[in-house]
Every structure is written in C-alpha cells, then in structure tokens.
Amino acid sequence: MTKLYIAGGFHGKWRDLLRSELSEKFILLDPLEKELDENGKRKVIPFEEFTAWDLWAIRTADVVFVYSEAT
Q1: Which of 20, 31, 44, 50 is 20 to 30 A distant from 37 in Cα terms?
Q2: Confidence band (pLDDT; 50, 70, 90) for 50?
Q3: d(CA 51, CA 21)
Q4: pLDDT for the residue 33
Q5: How many Å apart are CA 70 and CA 53, to the nearest integer?
Q6: C-alpha closest to that of 53 among 33, 68, 27
C-alpha cells in the first residue's frame, strides 16, 4: 500500500478530511497523530525520538502531501 506523509497547518479540519477519504487507499503518516497511553493521555515523546520518526516517515513515504495555510 502507498504511504502518504501529511504535513501542513494546524488549523481547520483538513487532516480529518484526508483521513476519512484516504485511509483505505493509503497508509497515512501523520506527525500529529495522537498516541495515547493506557490511561488515555497523550504520550510525551522526547524531541529526539519525534525528529527521528518524522525524518524516517518523510524518507519512506511514497507521497508527501503539504497543506499550506494562508497564515
């Protein structure tokens, strides 16, 4: 399956729209995807780990989708 890296703005519901429309056709690599711990709280990921994951995701993605907001 094709990997799609999602990059772009933090406002609006465009990420949710992409997820609902493309999740069956692509493996979505979203750096803002919430990872929850066993108590339902967002995991705190050290900066180094996040950066390593982000760079890995960009390098392995078949397509990089960037949404550029007006702001």
Answers
A1: 20
A2: confident
A3: 27
A4: 76
A5: 27
A6: 33
How many Å apart are CA 57 and CA 39, to the nearest integer? Answer: 27
DSSP string, 2-62: EEEEEEE-SSSSHHHHHHHHHTTTEEEE-TTPPPB-TTSPBP---HHHHHHHHHHHHHH-S
Are 63 and 5 in contact by the 8 Å Cβ rule? The answer is: yes
With H, G, I as helix, E, B as strand and everything else as coil, classify residue 53: helix
Tokens of 2: 């094709």
Residue with tokens 């750096």: 31
Beta-bridge partners for 66:
7
Amino acid, res. 10: F
